[in-house]
Structure formats: structure tokens, C-alpha cells
Amino acid sequence: MTEEPALPRAITLFWGEQQQPRRGPKPGLSVDRIVAAAVEIADKEGLGPLSMARVAERVGVTTMALYRHVRSKDDLLILMMNAVSAGAPVYPDDGRVEWRTALRAWAAANYAGYQRHPWIMQIANAGPPLTPAMLDWMDSGLRALGGTGLSEPVKLLVILNITAYVHGQATFSVKLADVDNTPDGDAFGKNFGRLVDPEKHPALARAVASGVFEAEEEDYEAEFAFGLDRILDGIAALISPGSPGSASHPDGTGRSTPD
């Protein structure tokens, strides 16, 4: 009989399988308090300066005392990500939710979370979605598609594609915002234009000439909404009667079937 794979150590904290520390912890110290302190550091300074020693100092204990509650920095990162990812939209599981409105809100809420805690983007793809918050987000997205008639595999692919878009757009906007906030950020568009050879890159040259790279302020929210709506347009086409993946398609998977 094949044994089930063991859950990562940090994950067991969520599902009640973690043993209590052998030595008595300092009164008032808890995993929640440790995680909250770590999130404060990461929100202000990023993940670079985050260490078990810094967190211990923040909560007023020794580093060894911290390790009695959270055994490694990797475990701490998983706990932090779960803490800041709480609050997935809640949709009824009756198939009557308007899928486009629900998915737009779902994606926007996910994107907003990245904006509040940019450091999540460095660890969001570190492993499978096993924390309670991550499972809540997946379930919420799948519920949004409950009345579409799409097959379960296609629903999951839709959710994964939107998740990848949100993660990529959030990463892109944060990095560009860092560029825009540098002393020479305002000159980026003009300097970029100087590097473009109209003969070698004619299409790019036309874009530069339009002034698109010299906008005084990027509207990242509008850019995010534009891309998301194009993805939702594609999903709408997938859901339309007779299209691959719709309820009326023979196998609901997008594969053609013989007549």
C-alpha cells in the first residue's frame, strides 16, 4: 500500500497536525503574533531584510524562542502568505452567479492584494495551494464559473490563466512603478525613443512617436482592467452555445469529436 505524501511542515499548522512545542513558550507569544510582526517588516522593507532574528526582536523574544513556534523562515513565509491572502470573495454554490461580474471582482481583489503586499509575488508560486486562504481563492473562482456549463477541467484552466495574468500584471506594475519613482524615471520615455531604429523596428517606432512611452503617469488600474476584459471576452466565447468547453459541446473540453 502506497503511503500518502507528508504535508509540508508549515501546512500542518493550519490543519491541526502540528505538535505543541516541548518547552513552554513565553506567555503572550503566538504564531499569529509572530506572523503579524513578520508581515509588518515585509510590508515596509520587503523580504530582503526579513529574518527570524528581526522578527524575534520585533516581538521581544530571543530567536530560539521564536523557533519553538515557527521552525524555519520557509515555514514563516507560508504562514505570512496565508495571513495576507485571507478574504476571497464568497459566491453561492448554486450556479446562479453572473460569472463575468464575479470573475472580474475575484481577479481585482487578487490584484489588490498584490498591490498591498508586493512581497507576495516572490513566494506566491512557491508550492501547491495547500493553505486555507489559497484553497478559499480557488474554490471562489470555481464557484464563479458554476453556471457556465464548462467542464471542471476547463473551469480550472480558466482560473489558472486568470491567476497567471493577475500575478504577471501585478509584478509588471510594481517594477515599473519603481522605475517611475527613480530620479531619472521621467526621462525613460524619451531615452527609450532614442534607442529605437525606425528602419529596424518600424512598428515600435510608430508606438514611440505616438507618445505612449512618455505618459506623465501610468494608469496601472486601467491597464489591468483592459487586459482582464480581453481575457473575459475569450471566456465568454468559450461559454457561448456550441463553442468548445460549453455545456452544449459534446465533451466540454475543447476537443473536437467525430460526428
Automatic annotation (TrEMBL):
Entry keyword annotation includes Transcription: yes
Phylogenetic lineage: Bacteria, Bacillati, Actinomycetota, Actinomycetes, Micromonosporales
Transmembrane segments: none
Pfam families for the chain: TetR_C_1, TetR_N
GO MF term set: DNA-binding transcription factor activity; transcription cis-regulatory region binding
Gene Ontology biological process terms in this record: negative regulation of DNA-templated transcription
Domain HTH tetR-type: 28-88
Name of the protein in its database record: TetR family transcriptional regulator
DNA-binding region: 51-70
Protein source organism: Virgisporangium aliadipatigenens
Domain of life: Bacteria
Keyword annotations from UniProtKB, A to Z: DNA-binding, Transcription, Transcription regulation
PROSITE patterns recorded: HTH_TETR_2 (PS50977)
PANTHER family: HTH-TYPE TRANSCRIPTIONAL REGULATOR RUTR (PTHR30055), TRANSCRIPTIONAL REGULATORY PROTEIN (PTHR30055:SF151)
